[in-house]
Amino acid sequence: MEPLSLTDVAAAEFAPGRTYLNTASCGLLPRRTAAAVRAFADDAVAGSAASLGSLDSLTAARAAFGRLMGVPAERVSTGSAVATHVGLIAASLPEGAEVLVAEGDFSSVVNPFAVRRDLKVRLVPLDSLAESVRPGTALVAVSAVQSADGRIADLPAIRAAAAAHGARTLVDASQAAGWLPLNAGDFDYTVTGGYKWLLAMRGASYLTVTEEAQESLVPIHAGWFSGENPWESTYGPVEELAHSARRFDEAPAFVAYHAAEQSFALIEGIGVERIHGHNTALAARCRAGLLELGLAPVPGESAIVSVPGLAHRQEDVARAGIQTSARAGNLRAAFHFYNSAADVDRLLDVLSG
Question: Phi first, then psi: what are they for 124, rounded to 5°?
């Protein structure tokens, strides 16, 4: 049986009220995901046992994220926000450790280190990140795809440079996971927000940790849920923390993981490679059209297309019924599998005026 076309999937699962090119800010909820959230809310209104939340949904989401990122579920920790995961890593670094980050990277990747005054945070241009790793660098932290302009980091070069100098690596995959093929096993840590390209809700986020890196990471969020046997860890000190990365979990926001379970099923059913081809083809069409208009988008092969100096046109675009975003002076459009060539052409038509 032939798989459904992405046009058919989009028609069945999404109902945007406008041309939506803003996944880099927040992804659309699929219909199946919204239905799961409504069911959870209805159970809460009725006071049913289901309103307490489902560990099954959390387990399913953890496993699905692991499959998406090429690591076993035992290497995946769940939480509520990227900054919380990064804060956990920052808190575990020794005094005086040097953290190398890219200039202009998203604050959730940078600030948890910056607020620790006893760390040495060094900022360099993204394109110079690999060559800037040096003896004494403890950690290199970078977004796989830059939020402001969509540039894709040279992760193989960064990984190689870090390995050569004994530094660990932290990759924020929030603007990548769901459309850009990645293997979390290539890095000591990855962090990912689930409400963008993964099409879920705020409150679901993921941390992957290598077995070696787990040894030095302090489970500062460890509550009852981080116990090897959570229901035997509800009072007093937790006697035995989980043997897997689950010991770094926060207690889950269950509704967010009810949503995530459904959205992962949709993404897995399509496949990241297929999504990648679709998204980057639309982005390439957009870049080519912008160049024809005499505009200069940030070059590359990202699903995020940004045009420096064009942020002031975002309101014009919005009045035409097209949702984009303005970031760091850029007009930013983001293409996902629910978008089409017609969406690209609609944006170009407005910008030609």
Answer: -140, 160
Q: Which two tokens stand for residue 318?
A: 């919005």
Answer yes or no: are the C-beta atoms of 61 and 203 closer than 8 Å: no
DSSP-H helix ranges across the chain: 6-13, 31-46, 55-69, 82-91, 107-114, 129-132, 155-165, 211-214, 254-270, 272-292, 314-319, 341-351
Phi–psi pair at 269, nearest 5 degrees: -65, -30
Report the relative pairing of strands 137-143 and 205-209 from DSSP bridges: unpaired
For the question of whether the overall pTM of this predicted structure is more than 0.90, the answer is: yes
Burial of 53 per CB tally in 10 Å (0-12, 13-18, 19+): buried
Which amino acid belongs to residue 51? S
The pLDDT profile of the chain, 353 residues, written as one tens digit per residue, is 567 789 999 999 999 999 999 999 999 999 999 999 999 999 989 988 766 778 899 999 999 999 999 999 999 999 999 999 999 999 999 999 999 999 999 999 999 999 999 999 999 999 999 999 999 999 999 999 999 999 999 999 999 999 999 999 999 999 999 999 999 999 999 999 999 999 999 999 999 999 999 999 999 998 998 999 988 999 999 999 999 999 999 998 999 999 999 999 999 999 999 999 999 999 999 999 999 999 999 999 999 999 999 999 999 999 999 999 999 999 999 999 999 999 999 999 999 98
